[in-house]
């Protein structure tokens, strides 16, 4: 056999590799890429809760905060929720593999968890009655936008 006989004819796809006719993205997604850092946080032989401990830590903190809110302690409960999200941002930054805590890119996850956690803590400390933190221009801003 010659080399020409073993090569596919013009227009036929090569075996094992589909012919790409366009540089556009395909209309149907065949698979998805795991987010950066989305690998197991523990070896594969470990039980599932151990492999996903970063996510379970954050979810446990949020659940504890919701329980505290349900027991009629609004401010401490929402602070615990916000601190849990900030802990999620810190875990996402510090650990190379965080399992299902990784949803998007590392930067986007850290920014999302960090901003939401900081906003929840700040808003819970500003809540009435007896706010622990006051920001002077916010009252003027509310009066300007509402009235």
Automatic annotation (TrEMBL):
Q: Spell out where the chain crosses the membrane.
A: 53-71, 77-95, 107-127
Q: Which domain of life is it from?
A: Bacteria
Entry keywords, A to Z: Membrane, Transmembrane, Transmembrane helix
Disordered: region residues: 1-47
Q: Does the keyword Transmembrane apply?
A: yes
The name under which this protein is listed is DUF3017 domain-containing protein
Q: What is the lineage of its organism?
A: Bacteria, Bacillati, Actinomycetota, Actinomycetes, Kitasatosporales
The keyword Transmembrane belongs to this UniProt entry's keyword annotation: yes
């Amino acid at each position: 056999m010659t080399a020409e006989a073993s090569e596919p004819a013009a227009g036929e796809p090569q075996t094992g590799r589909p012919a790409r006719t366009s540089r556009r993205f395909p209309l149907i997604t065949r698979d998805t890429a795991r987010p950066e850092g989305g690998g197991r946080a523990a070896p594969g032989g470990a039980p599932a809760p151990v492999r996903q401990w970063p996510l379970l830590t954050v979810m446990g903190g949020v659940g504890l905060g919701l329980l505290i809110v349900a027991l009629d302690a609004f401010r401490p409960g929402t602070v615990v929720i916000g601190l849990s999200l900030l802990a999620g941002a810190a875990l996402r930054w510090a650990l190379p593999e965080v399992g299902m805590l990784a949803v998007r890119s590392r930067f986007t996850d850290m920014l999302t968890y960090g901003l939401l956690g900081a906003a929840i803590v700040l808003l819970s400390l500003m809540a009435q009655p007896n706010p622990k933190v006051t920001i002077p221009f916010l009252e003027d801003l509310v009066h300007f936008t509402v009235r």
